[in-house]
Amino acid sequence: MAKKPLGPVRRAFSPWDDPSEQPFIEFRNITKRFGNFVAVDNLSLKIYKREFHALLGGSGCGKTTLMRMLAGFEAPSEGQIFLEGRDLAGVPPYKRPVNMMFQSYALFPHMNVEKNIAFGLEMDGLPSKEIKSRVMEMLSLVKLEGFAKRKPHQLSGGQRQRVALARSLAKRPKVLLLDEPLAALDKKLREETQLELINLQEQLRMTFLIVTHDQEEAMTVADRISVMDKGKILQNATPGEIYEQPNSRFVAEFIGDINVLDGQVTNKELEDVKMFSSVLGSHLDVCYPTAANVGDHAALAIRPEKMRISFDKPERLGTNAIQGEVWDIAYMGDVSIYHIKVAETETLRAIVANTARLVERPITWEDQVWLSWDSDAGVILTR
Amino acid sequence: MPSKPSWFNLTSLVLGFSFLYLPIVILIVFSFNESRLVTVWAGFSTKWYAALLQNEQLLEAAWVTFRIGLTSATLATVLGTLAALVLARQGRFFGRTLFSGMIYAPLVMPEVILGLSLLLLFVAIDQNRGFWTIMIAHTTFSMCYVAIVVQSRLSGFDRSLEEAAMDLGCPPVRTFFRITLPQILPGVLAGWMLAFTLSLDDLVIASFNSGPGSTTLPMKIYSQVRLGVTPEINAICTILVVIVTIGVILASLLTKRQRFKRMEEERLAAAHL
Amino acid sequence: MTDPNLSSTDLLRSETIPPPRHELQDPENSPTNPTGKWGRFALICVPYVWLLLFFLVPFVIVAKISLSEAAVSIPPYLPVIDWGRGLLGLWEAAQRWSLDNYIWLTEDDLYWRAYVSSLQIAFISTLLTLLVGFPLAYGMARAPRSWQPTLVMMVILPFWTSFLIRVYAWIGILKTDGLLNQALIAIGIISEPLVILNTSIAVYIGIIYSYLPFMVLPLYSSLEKLDTTLIEAAEDLGCPPWKTFWRVTVPLAMPGVIAGCFLVFIPAVGEFVIPDLLGGSSTLMIGKTLWVEFFSNRDWPVASAVAIVLLVLLVIPILLFQRHETRRNEGDM
After folding, report:
1. Quick one: pLDDT band at residue C17, thresholds 50, 70, 90?
2. What is the mean pLDDT of residues A308-330?
3. Are residues A86 and A190 in the same domain?
4. For B136-158, how does the pLDDT look when each residue is reduced to its tens digit (9 = 90+)?
5. pLDDT value for B107
6. What is the rounded CA–CA span in Å between residue C324 and residue B196?
7. Touching chains, B (3+ CB pairs < 8 A)
8. Closest residue to B262, CB basis, from A108, A153, A158
9. Which residue from A213, A216, A257 is facing C10, i.e. has the nearest CB?
């Protein structure tokens, strides 16, 4: 998977590794039921001050419900939510120091841009002079200075998105909640806006919580990602850890593309593990810290870009090599994805960068090739 | 869609709309007839309109009808909007089925039953019939129409607008007046207009619930129609038809113009970026 | 991975997608319920109490009076509950209630005939309205897009003008010396004027005319939604136009047909103004019977019993209609 270039270089930031650090937001054993449907299932999560945290998952995984509980639109069936150590139970949404940017933007159609941004400030009863200056400040922050008197329907999609952002930032909330903020934008604008969001968060030094189903978006903007499924958090880690050390099959397959081979652990010495794959009929070397013991069933997962293909068998030590036939080639421009049939029922994928122009493809359909990867390229998944 | 309608479709449109409009057109034409006969044309005259202005009973009835329409439509709009909010927003509560049943039933209930049942209530509580009893009767059945109209507006309403307002610190009741009401206002106004014309038109329910001195215009027209067709009735019918038609057309033109302006602005916004 | 909106994992896990949003909402416990607990109570109570008081209670009274007997008194029925004596008064009155009025309705065949002929007239005129309305709705749906809002407006407009006036307009046309007969004689189709007014035919015409918008609008809305590519597809597959009409257009318009028929049939059964003004004394309809019992005969208990029976008759079509509507709405979502 092609990783997006990061915005400005980030400072080293990892309060979650510091045991003395107090969480800014804490979900403690939260369960939310709608009738018989369990949307959030006994979930706990700590988010730290100035963190950009992403809740990532498919539709119905509970990520939006979790965010709506923090905003106060839903009450948890069980558990507590703390903000700066204060229990939020019973605090109505209009009294919570968090603001939300809605997926639909929810701009008030009967008010112009200025009035929309001023709405929250008016509710706080600020003097009109201050409201005015704050609105101007917000408009310049999102680069919409000339648009104060426009109504929402007179704006383009990208402009509406920025008004919604300005409106939710105007009150300087302790936490900004972003509910699929970029889902309605086209791909190019979405990528630009992701970088703008990162800059904004660095500039304002605020805590951001984003809900998204788009893994690239989560990887790009977030300090940490919580991958959710069926109301539970499967893994909560930095984008790099999520990608390189997924803790489960679901996470591995949800983020990017991955080859998964089922097998059984046959030998284990510290981190050096031998696995037998019955589908390939061969033993594989893996170097990965795992809790699996000899005899356990486990899966070996390797990212396609960590796979190599060649006509000759690579003879390097610590390399797994299996033979197969080129079944399909998907030319993507920057890379090509080779589908290699290694067994009757198993096709693995390898990504090869197209480093030269106008080169006759050396490896092509129906060629017999060797597929190889280093023993430390794979990850052992036990669930 | 084919750009040109076929002959069959064009014929059915022309025949269909002739059927709908010809009787009304004939009625209007004969209100300007010189002769007392409404079937033989004898020259143009406006004398029947002049005669209307002399007919104090008719004017009195028109005034009563107008007052009942105004008060019952306003009350029905308030109650109907509340009912729509209950149906659209309050989810389950004790007796919800009964409530929605009572909202929908008057729409399909024969008027004779509605009229009779309310009359029997007023008799049972020993209430003299007149202006107020008709007003309550009209409010009761037209609030159901208002509720349906407003509810359909509410169901197309983006709830995240209300959530956004509350998220920005706006308490619930204030949210209703600042966000919800401005958004559903077209529906509320349409509901009011519907309630007003329903009240204006009603004969059966008013007949059951009227008392001395509270004869409405439809009741007056009805009692005269039974005696025969006269150009005078044609004239008053023409006036009513013209008023309602102008009102409805104006209202639809206004909303159409607004929608057009909005679409134009949206197009411009999209073109700029 | 190229389209994040449609990742395969999303599709795979479709079974975990929660019920639709409106079912998820739990207004009672929702912190965003715009009213709070007492506000919610008041909001529900105001319209609820009004409807209970002026819609439901009157029906209970109708039911009660239908069990009483007529009397020359004010009010003209007996027994009158003596509320001054509380529940005892109710009890004493209840002991004198009887089903005599209902028995009377079954014995006098006038009522039977009125019910049967109401149903019959409503049924026939519903079919006729469908016959008249379908071509009109079809023509509207197939008209150029830019005409359609105006055409819909033109169908709705008569609905806003007074019912009474629209019925009245037909008297002058259908009379023996009316415009229709004059026109027909002038063209030479007939030599003697036809008697139309004060017959069932006039009632049919009146019902078709008055209820046509109720039939056309639902028909139009289902025909308008009909995707023209479906018709093109059918023709492309070798289906001739008339067959396409029966095999594609009509089945897809069925929800509109059913809704339109209910919307005409139900109110037509209890119609009063049309049979009274156009049908004359020869047409028997139950709405008119009720009116006569009440205003002319001043027999309130019998009028109440007639109303109750009419209501019972209508409950079945109303329930069927409601079920059809909920299904139709669910289908739309």
Report:
1. very low
2. 88
3. yes
4. 999 999 999 999 999 988 887 88
5. 80
6. 30
7. A, C
8. A153
9. A213
The predicted-structure confidence for C186-236, as pLDDT tens digits, reads as follows 888 888 888 888 888 999 999 999 999 999 999 999 898 887 788 888 888
- Give all chains having 3 or more CB-to-CB distances under 8 Å with chain C: A, B
Tokens of A160: 């509406």
Question: Other CB atoms closer than 10 Å to residue B82's CB: what's the count?
Answer: 22
DSSP secondary structure code for residue C19 in this structure: P
In this complex, do C13 and A229 lie within 8 Å of one another by their Cβ atoms? Answer: yes
Domain count for chain A, please give it: 2
| pLDDT on residue A101 | 94
Closest CA to A322 of A289, A353, A364, A277: A277
Q: Which of A197, A225, A252 is the last residue of a domain?
A: A252
- The span from the CA of A151 to the CA of C282, in Å, is 63
Q: Which residues contact A108 (CB under 8 A, 6 or more apart)?
A: A115, A116, A119, A152, B161, B164, B165, B179
Answer yes or no: do A185 and A88 share one domain.
yes
Q: Calculate the alpha carbon distances from A202 to A158, B114, C241 in Å.
A: 21, 67, 66
Compare all CA atoms of chain B with the CA of C321 and give the residue at the minimum distance: B108
Whole-number CA gyration radius for chain C: 27
Residue A56 lies in a domain: yes
Asked whether residue A218 is domain-assigned, the answer is yes
A361: domain CATH number? 2.40.50.100
Q: What is the pLDDT of residue C33?
A: 54
In the stretch 117-176 of chain A, residues with CB closer than 8 A to chain B read 119-120, 123-124, 150-151, 153-156, 158-159, 167-168, 171
In the block, tokens 């809900």 appear at: A211
- Short-list A83, A92, A40, CA closest to A64: A40
Chain C interface, Cβ < 8 Å to A: 1, 4-5, 7, 9-10, 13, 16-19, 23-24, 26, 29-32
Total-model pTM: 0.81
CA angle A87, A88, A94 (to 5 degrees): 155
